[in-house]
Design goal:
Blueprint: H1 10-15, E1 33-35, E2 42-44, H2 68-88, H3 90-100, H4 124-140, E3 147-151, H5 157-177, H6 181-195, E4 197-205, E5 210-217, E6 221-223, E7 235-242, H7 244-252, H8 270-279, H9 285-288, E8 291-300, E9 308-309, E10 312-313, E11 318-325, E12 330-336, E13 351-355, H10 367-393, E14 397-399, E15 404-405, E16 420-421, H11 427-430, E17 431-433, H12 441-458, H13 474-484, H14 486-513, H15 528-531, E18 536-540, H16 549-565, H17 572-582, H18 588-591, H19 603-611, H20 624-636, H21 638-644, H22 650-677, H23 690-724, H24 727-765, H25 767-822
Helix pairs in contact: 3-8, 4-6, 4-10, 4-12, 4-14, 10-12, 13-16, 16-17, 20-22, 22-23, 24-25
Length: 823
């Protein structure tokens, strides 16, 4: 089905103002405006490099500003390109139409080789399609929503909150507001394995006031010949069917030009005709006539809107979206297909290409192309077997001309006997049965082989648990499962990549058109537009590494087995949490809480959580010295040790506390190094370039050495203080003090003797010249020396006596302390 909605741009929505809205005019180049006329008139001197595009609003319908002759040329050229592109894929359409018959959606009454011949279709193709659809919808669209988020670069608390808000809003939007999303996804997943290609159109619907993501079948999306990718193709045409009333609404709203397009003409489409044949629907042209609108994404060098340089056209074509009515060949709209603030004017993307199996060209290969021949052969063999059984049960034959069977020549019912007139001889001689064999075992075996090969390729075959050894290692079982699911895993990986592109387009539309506030209450009063600023990547929730739940379960079982060999190497809570998520267990975050789920708290609450065997976590911004001190006091508390030591979980609590203290210690060491450096280090989780990491390492090394020296001094002081409090050490210090006093007394005596010798020497030198005058002074000096010597001897004897008394007291105190320790 074609999509009935046109593309909208943010500028188109911004231009949809009410009559009451004010219009603001901004002069881009004020220097180009000058008042030169005597009466105050204004002369505008435009930049000669500017093109005429600057004179028309960016979001305007350019068809309203162009000549009819130019529009006619554009319509003629683009319709010719469209027919050429459509003709270039005629073989693809023919193969697709023929393959649709193999689905067996319509019962076939065959008349050849006889009336009532078997017309059954083997369900190989239908089974493969339905299994693919059922399996893929569970992977792409789980009950919680198809969206999850990831953060590239530095992760902080604000970004984590933003990522959760973006994920919750997109899942709410897709599951609640976009009511058509799941139905359109299931239709896409039914068409994709058949045709090999399917498309999603992501756009903003102004009528609904919300984003839309609609399924576009491959037959309604035509690209230029030779295109290899949707982003690089020269032309892409979306074929839409619209009623006259719908087109008139768009004309009145100003989205389409108000031109007369006449009545709709019948546009025959073989694929649409085949759909109607399979579904049993048929349209009445007089009542259901609809216009065929070609919405073409193309690059054009429009007359009057050329890109100029120094006043001369450059001939550069820009991306536009052109809407044309096919029957009247009238251009309804031409709109720019790039952002106004984009200097490179890159084409905007509105479609996402889903491929089942990338082929040799633009369109992918589907099951019709890959196993269509096998499905056709399986149908032929199945019909032969049924027809053989029919002929064997109801055989035909020959009879003599004169042989008459009373009651007509209708087939004889089981248990029925009829009268016959035999002209001569026995009945056996007048009737000859044709020889029909029973259904062939060879054909039946061949049918089984063909079906098995087809299912194996399409990954429609189920791996039976009975075929596996229950005692085999998980790795062996996983290898068998992966081998059988290899093709489907590759298809699922392609679906995941396409789904990721679609969600990014949806995220961009929310950024361009989204509401300013969330439709529900949030804790941070966040703004939608600010959250969708590109800092958070939106990805699909499906896993590209495994195609089914069974495959993921086996992978996690293998990981759990490996973790049992060396548990210290694994993050077991995270492994078990992911296992519960794979199993879709509700409230997995409460069953196995992770570190990311732990909230910061005070040291007392952390001690309580450790006692209650709850997880705790240190955060980089906390006061780690205070936390460590509180935890160490808790550990050394005798009451806590006495009671908690009797618990059967005492060892686990001790290990948890030790690990938590070490975590705080690591953060504290980081803070001390930062204090020595005088700058903050990058976050621990940040991936640094090689040159930055080398510079940081060279700066941190001397800072760590300085920190070590300070810690050594601090430990030495603490050790000295501790030793100073020891009674034995105190007694030793007293003995040292006594010895020091003795040394000081000896020094004073020596100093007095030195002074005496000095005085004698001086007296002897001056004796001859001053003998008579110095006799009295010599006697006085000798007397003073004698007095000083006597005083020094008296002080020394007093000190010796005091020292002996102190030593005796110390010895007595030492004996008392030793007796106390012995007790």
């Amino acid at each position: 089905m074609a999509i009935e909605k046109p593309l909208a741009t943010p500028d188109m929505m911004a231009g949809a103002l009410s009559p009451e809205d004010a219009i603001e005019i901004e002069i881009v180049n004020p220097e180009a405006v000058s008042v030169e006329t005597p009466d105050g008139g204004v002369i505008l001197d435009f930049d000669p490099d500017a093109s005429s595009m600057g004179m028309v609003p960016f979001d305007a319908n350019l068809a309203d500003f162009m000549e009819d002759s130019d529009l006619s040329i554009i319509a003629s050229d683009l319709i010719g390109y469209y027919r050429s592109d459509k003709e270039s894929r005629a073989d693809w359409e023919r193969t697709y139409i023929e393959g649709l018959d193999l689905l067996g959606l319509k019962h076939e009454d065959r008349t050849t080789p006889w009336d009532g011949a078997c017309g059954v279709f083997h369900p190989l193709l239908t089974e493969s399609v339905i299994k693919f659809q059922s399996q893929s919808i569970q992977e792409l669209f789980p009950a919680s929503g198809p969206v999850k988020t990831s953060i590239v670069g530095v992760i902080d608390e604000d970004k984590e909150k933003q990522a959760h808000r973006v994920q919750d809003y997109l899942n709410y939007l897709v599951t609640e507001k976009m009511s058509e999303y799941r139905a359109e996804t299931e239709r896409l997943l039914f068409s994709l394995p058949l045709a090999g290609s399917a498309f999603r159109k992501v756009y903003f619907d102004p009528n609904m006031g919300r984003p839309c993501s609609m399924f576009v079948p491959a037959e309604d999306f035509i690209v230029s010949y030779g295109a290899s990718d949707l982003t690089t193709c020269e032309r892409a045409t979306h074929v839409m069917k619209r009623s006259s009333n719908e087109i008139r609404k768009m004309q009145v709203a100003g989205f389409y030009s108000d031109v007369d397009i006449g009545k709709a003409s019948e546009d025959t489409d073989e694929i649409k005709h085949k759909y109607e044949e399979l579904t049993g629907n048929s349209s009445t042209y007089d009542l259901d006539a609809r216009h065929t609108i070609l919405e073409i994404q193309v690059e054009l060098d429009l007359a009057g809107f050329e890109v100029t340089k120094r006043g001369e056209p450059t001939g550069i074509a820009l991306p536009y979206v052109v809407s044309i009515d096919l029957s009247s060949r009238k251009v309804l709209s031409i709109r720019r297909n790039y952002y106004e603030d984009d200097p490179q004017r890159m084409k905007r993307e509105h479609f996402v290409h889903y491929q089942y199996m990338p082929g040799l060209g633009f369109y992918g290969f589907g099951l019709i192309h890959m196993i269509g021949g096998l499905a056709k052969s399986a149908t032929s063999l199945l019909r032969q077997l049924v027809d053989a059984g029919t002929l064997a049960n109801l055989p035909g034959g020959l009879k003599s001309r004169g042989l008459r069977i009373k009651g007509d020549d209708t087939p004889i019912m089981p248990g029925e006997f009829r009268d016959v007139d035999v002209p001569g001889g026995s009945i056996k001689e007048n009737i000859s049965f044709l020889t029909y064999k029973e259904p062939s075992n060879v054909l039946y075996q061949l049918l089984g082989d063909i079906v098995e090969e087809g299912r194996r390729f399409a990954t429609a075959a189920d791996v039976k648990a009975a075929d596996m050894n229950s005692e085999a290692p998980v790795g062996t079982t996983l290898a068998i499962l992966e081998r059988s699911m290899k093709v489907m895993s590759a298809v699922q990986a392609r679906l995941h990549a396409s789904m990721r592109r679609e969600l990014r387009l949806l995220s961009n539309i929310v950024y361009d058109f989204g509401p300013s506030d969330y439709p529900y209450a949030t804790k941070d009063n966040a703004v939608v537009r600010e959250d969708f600023d590109g800092r958070v990547d939106v990805i699909a929730v499906s896993d590209p590494n495994s195609g089914t739940m069974a495959q993921r379960i086996m992978q996690y079982q293998a990981a759990l087995q490996l973790s049992q060999q060396n548990p210290d190497m694994y993050d077991l809570p995270l492994l078990h949490r992911q296992m519960l998520d794979v199993l879709s267990i509700r409230d997995a975050d409460k069953i196995v809480p992770l570190e990311d789920d732990i909230k910061p708290t005070n040291p007392v609450s952390e001690n309580m959580n450790i006692l209650n065997n709850k997880p705790v976590k240190a955060f980089i911004y906390q006061d780690h010295e205070a936390h460590i001190q509180a935890h160490m006091s808790f550990i050394e508390d005798p009451k806590i040790l006495q009671i908690a030591g009797k618990s059967p979980l005492a060892k686990q609590m001790a290990a948890a506390m030790a690990a938590h203290v070490q975590e705080h210690l690591a953060f504290a060491y980081r803070q001390q190094v930062e204090k020595e450096l005088g700058v903050n280090l990058p976050p621990p989780e940040e991936n640094l370039p090689e040159d930055i990491e080398l510079r940081i390492a060279r700066l941190v090394a001397p800072a760590a050495e300085q920190l070590k020296g300070k810690n050594e001094q601090e430990m030495a002081q603490q050790k000295a203080q501790k030793q100073a409090q020891d009674p034995v050490v105190q007694m030793a210090q007293r003995e040292l003090a006594i010895k020091e006093m003795q040394a000081q007394s000896k020094a004073q005596i020596d100093q007095a003797k030195l002074q005496l010798e000095t005085a004698k020497a001086m007296s002897k030198v001056n004796f001859d010249s001053q003998k008579l005058n110095r006799d009295e002074e010599i006697r006085k000096a000798e007397l003073a020396v004698k007095v000083a010597e006597d005083n020094a001897k008296d002080q020394l004897e007093n000190r010796k006596i005091a020292s002996k008394e102190q030593i005796e007291g110390v010895k007595i105190g030492k004996e008392i302390v030793e007796n106390l320790f012995d007790r």
